[in-house]
Batch of 2 targets.
Target 1
Amino acid sequence: MIKKRNINILSPKEFAKRVITYTVVSLGLLIFSLGIGVLGYHFIGGLDWVDSIYNASMILTGMGPVDEMKTDAAKLFASAYALFSGVVFLSTVAIFFAPFAHRLMHLLRVDDLDEN
């Protein structure tokens, strides 16, 4: 027997609000993470502000380091920031795409598959 189910899909207006909320959270996480990198590269790595932003941006997006770190403290910071950035970048992508994946699962009625 086939059961008819009422699918509770958000209205386009509510969905847009959810997408905006998740986008703001994603951008906030990226800006916070970039700030950590900029401050670390400036104060620990001894780079000027523009080079700090450049290095932190390249690491955060997975492109790799630009400037060589000269002190042991700077090298340790760069290593920790690289590991941190990998996790943050993937988490940010997941947060950003979560509302779209959730809506797609509702549209495809994935929850009905669990009952069979």
Note: Residues 88 and 104 are 24 Å apart (CA to CA).
Target 2
Amino acid sequence: MYTPEQLAQKQLDAYNRQDIDEFVSVYADDIVVMDFPSNNITLLGKEEFRTRYHNLFLQNPNQHAELKHRLVKGNIVIDHEYVTGRENGINTEAIAMYEVNHTHIRRVWFVK
């Protein structure tokens, strides 16, 4: 059992190592990824999630997400990240909100 903050950190560390197995292991089988505030679903289920991030890691072997700030309220974690090292040369800021149960991240919203 992990705290919400520990799960968010575990997935961030795996993302930065591009360890697809460890990264995906943090997410629930029925993971839902949505845009915020529209709630449009962009990814649904662990297999689709794995495929998208596997391809992202292959296309961007030098990317790195630096945690700028983290807020935790109950089972919600909000991370503000600065992502560098993408193949297109564009650095970007990202805000991700994670809904966590005691074992996995169940939902993710990316602020658009």
Note: The two ends are 31 Å apart (CA to CA).
